[in-house]
Design brief:
Number of helices: 0
Number of strands: 11
Oligomer: single chain
Low-confidence stretches: none
Length: about 120
Amino acid sequence: QVQLVESGGGLVQAGGSLKLSCAASGFTFSYSAMGWFRQAPGKEREFVATISRSGTSTVIADSVKGRFTISRDNAKNTVYLQMNSLKPEDTAVYYCAKNRGSVAAVQMGTYGYWGQGTQVTVSS
């Protein structure tokens, strides 16, 4: 069965950095586009970043562009989210997701599997 396990979250001061990892199993990782989403308390889940199956195409949300980078290592079945210059408004639970296709996609409805999430808290 498909499993997505996020790690790397935690508490960091504003301006700091964190790198999230998502270890995937139960499917052919290199066939699927992957994405990161986040959900802050009292808010809807929102798109953060997505990467194509090969890693050659990425899309980053405007709210984090220039600060966050998505990457993947198909040999390790892992997708990453490097987060720099973190702000208190980045505080949220971050979710890794597997897309139903191979093309980087921002629409939440195109993702069929989700991890349990990892908490990121940015203090001011």
